Amino acid sequence: MCGISGIFDTTGERAIERDLILRVNNTQSHRGPDESHVHLEPGLALGHRRLSVIDLATGSQPLFNQDGSVGVVFNGEIYNYQELMAQLKSMGYLFRTRSDTEVIVHAWSAWGEDCVHRLRGMFAFALWDRSMQTLFLARDRMGVKPMHYAWLPDGSFIFGSELKVLTAHPGFARAIDPLAVEEYFALGYIPDPRCIYQNAHKLPAGHTLTLRRGAAGRPQPRAYWDVRFTNANPIALKDAQAELLERVRESVRLRMVADVPLGAFLSGGVDSSAVVATMAGLSAAPVHTCSIGFDDPRFDETRFAQQVADRYQTDHRLDIVKGDDFDLIDTLAWLYDEPFADSSALPTYRVCQMARQHVTVALSGDGGDESLGGYRRYRMHLGEEAVRGRLPLALRRSMFGPLGRWYPKADWAPRSLRAKTTFQALSMDSVQAYCHSMSQLRSDERRALFSPAFQRSLGGYAALEVFRHHAAQAQTDDPLALIQYLDYKTWLVGDINTKVDRASMAHALEVREPLMDHQLVEWLATLPSDFKIRGGQGKLIFKQAYEPLLPRDVLYRPKMGFSVPLASWLRGPLKVRVRQALLGPHMRGCGYFNTAAIDRLVDEHNSGLRDHATALWMLLMFEAFLRLNAGDTSNG
User: Fold this and answer.
1) Strand 121-129's sheet: what is its strand order?
2) What are the average pLDDT values for consecutive 10-residue runs of the chain, which has 636 residues?
3) How far is the C-alpha of 365 from the C-alpha of 265, rounded, in Å?
4) What's the farthest any 2 CA atoms get from each other in the chain?
5) Selection from 515, 464, 457 nearest residue 486 by Cα
6) Active-site residue flag, 2
7) What's the CA gap between 493 and 419, in Å, rounded?
8) Which residues contact 180 (CB under 8 A, 6 or more apart)?
9) What topology is assigned to 237-373+504-556 in CATH?
10) End-to-end CA distance of the chain
């Protein structure tokens, strides 16, 4: 696991200063504390920060082929590198290392841009082919590893693992993109390919970007992979359960290859527990496991994690997050480089911090809910779809639209009485309804929050367009498959993978994700949706498959999620900070917000009249971003 960076003169071969590439590369030194190297030649600079995991002795980067004509900087792991290495050796390619990095160099020489189709793993890399004057960027299919890039006014192209690499370049202009602000306050993160800054981009998952020196125009990213939901596999449920166990076992086995200490996160949920159970079956030694608990029992799952740890006799470590563990706000704002409002980034940071004291590589259960139908929102959406399927949209709008407007927002009430969101969703089409359910702040709440001037700068744009764009590519009319596809393109990449990448790399910890193996994802997309959700039970096939391996309490208890007690924090120990930050100069001076609306949110939350924890946390993280970038941003 590493950090990569680079500067490429697209127009010629102007010299690039060594101090410049060193400076931008070292902004991400936390990603690779073991080594730092750069390569310079006319019109090109490549930088690499290394966390040594495989081939500790000879895996340094940038890594070039024998004649020095093709080189790469690479972040991630290629899990099938040994198989590819054997294949490439049979084709006559010579290897000087045992690293997966050298496989990429020779795979390019053998197969060109199609090399990405051969790679199984998590990766973001930039490859330079001097003979072709070509810079080739690629990102893994599930977007586990990040890649940011931008064109500068002088014709230079810059890229890096983190956005801070771009902002460290003196030629990069930090003009905030209003559309990114709209997307952030809708979703709590800024989805690919947008960044908070207008001229910065994220390379989308499953895409490549090819730049040829001297070519006219700016090339666009090209998709090389997508998941297709057929839901037509004729396999019987019992046979599918057996095959699922074998596929997960293979995926975990591939991810247990490392030349450094390896362990796993164990939250007590189904997915991480299944990964640990599988690891235990593949390892002669006890598996190292780490859990984070909370001193608030409403958010604590440690007793379930302990059941799994006891069953498999893991080397288990537990840390408790205290009720006042919120001193990471500025740390997180710096790590994520742009506004990011998933509060579970706090315990994720802590569990990575603890894990790194004992291991360098940790396996996680991320991705299981998306592929297997584990979220409660999936079941709710399918229930709403049953109603939408019986009544035409015009009738639903006239019937449920007014109810959605008039029904009170009962944050304090039991879930069964919180009907406002459901009424609103029933008045919408399927894609709009799912965007509505995924929105941290609904469209009406954002309109109330934004100033009139800022709303005009949006030009009518709404975050719903992100979901519309992806839905048009989904090629499925299955209700569950459609929202799973939408989650793959938005939530999984923009929130889950971003959260884990930044939190883990802050501690130079590599996290691997066996349930996001693309071959496993492709196979799961062939299964009927009722293998995943049936009779109100999510993850049906997964839970039944693991019944012999995991306690029933772990498999069938209600999902808790990795949450923190935000509402009480914001009314209690964070109360003064919230008021000072949200009513302070950065928020008032940026011109984005209706300050009276912020005043009302703060007052209503503090009084206990309403629960505005989500909105206040989003605003607090946005203020931290503005403050850390004070003087460098403007509303473009």
Assistant:
1) 63-64, 70-78, 121-129, 134-139, 207-212, 222-223
2) 91 94 93 87 94 64 94 96 97 93 97 98 98 98 98 96 96 96 98 97 98 91 98 97 98 92 93 97 94 74 91 92 73 95 91 91 96 95 85 73 63 52 81 94 95 97 98 96 98 98 94 98 98 94 97 87 78 89 93 95 92 95 92 50
3) 8
4) 73
5) 464
6) yes
7) 30
8) 190, 194, 195, 196, 197, 338
9) Rossmann fold (3.40.50)
10) 35
DSSP state of 532: T
Query: Which residue carries 């007793």 as its tokens?
Result: 303
Amino acid at 137: L
Radius of gyration of the chain (CA): 24
Locate 292 and state its tokens.
């984070």
In sequence order, the 6+-apart residues with CB closer than 8 A to the CB of 552 are: none
Question: What is d(CA 354, CA 374) in angstroms, rounded to the nearest whole number?
Answer: 27
Helix axes 464-471, 430-438, angle to 10 degrees: 130
For domain 2-223, give the CATH number.
3.60.20.10
420 token code pair: 């406002």
The one catalytic residue among 2, 115, 195, 290: 2
CA separation, residue 296 to residues 128, 300, 327 (Å): 52, 7, 18
Domain ranges across the chain: 2-223, 237-373+504-556, 566-635
Strand partners, 123: 76
Amino acid of residue 344: S
Which residue type is seen at 256? M
575-582 and 613-628 helices, crossing angle to 10°: 60
Instruction: Name residue, tokens 């608030």.
Output: 296
Q: How many CB atoms lie within 10 A of CB 611?
A: 18
Classified as helix, coil or strand, 157 is strand
Q: Is 0.85 topped by the overall pTM?
A: yes
- CA gap 123, 115 in Å, rounded: 13
* Dihedral sign, Cα of residue 596, residue 601, residue 605, residue 610: positive
What is the residue type of 470?
H
Structure tokens at 239: 């046979």
Distance CA 633, CA 623 (A): 13
Which of 73, 127, 128, 82 lies closest to 103 in space, CA to CA?
Answer: 82
